[in-house]
Design goal:
Layout lengths: L1 E3 L7 E2 L15 E3 H17 L7 E2 L92 H8 L5
Antiparallel strand pairs: 1-3, 2-4
């Protein structure tokens, strides 16, 4: 399956001048191998404290139906990414930026979304069952029709118990 990036999207890992060959130029198809390389480089970056690999920047990427189950995407930049129907079950998305992302019908079952920015994201019909949502930013987020347990909703809305 190929993952195509919209015009103007950014998909790369690393810092300026770091690891030549890891930048994926727009207009080219992003296949499963390229996505795996970005995810592997991001995981190495997270393990190495920034000395190895590079931060995943998938802002504006078209990742519809992508299988990213269990992926380590902590601190990733996924602003405006199209993740319609994507499977992010058990993914670690803590501190990631998913603002303005489209997660229509995506699976986030058991995902770690603590301190994640979901402001202005579209989560209609998304499955948030067993997701960890403490401190998640949901300003102007569309949650219509999503599946979420009461305790998850309470954590998301930072409700207090009497």
């Amino acid at each position: 399956m190929k993952y195509l990036a919209r015009a103007g999207a950014e998909i790369h890992v690393g810092r300026t001048g770091a690891r030549a060959g890891t930048k994926i130029h727009m207009g080219k198809a992003m296949d499963g191998t390229s996505l795996k390389r970005v995810l592997d480089d991001h995981a190495a970056w997270m393990r190495g404290g920034g000395d190895k690999g590079g931060r995943a920047v998938l802002s504006g990427a078209d990742l519809r139906q992508a299988d990213m189950r269990g992926a380590d995407l902590r601190n990733a930049d996924m602003r405006g990414a199209d993740l319609t129907g994507a499977d992010l079950s058990r993914a670690d998305l803590r501190h990631a930026d998913l603002s303005e992302a489209v997660l229509l019908g995506a699976s986030l079952k058991g995902a770690l979304l603590d301190q994640t920015d979901l402001s202005e994201a579209d989560l209609r019909d998304t499955d948030l069952t067993d997701a960890s949502l403490s401190g998640t930013e949901v300003w102007r987020c569309n949650l219509k029709g999503c599946t979420i347990e009461p305790q998850g909703l309470h954590a998301l809305l930072e409700c207090r118990t009497p």
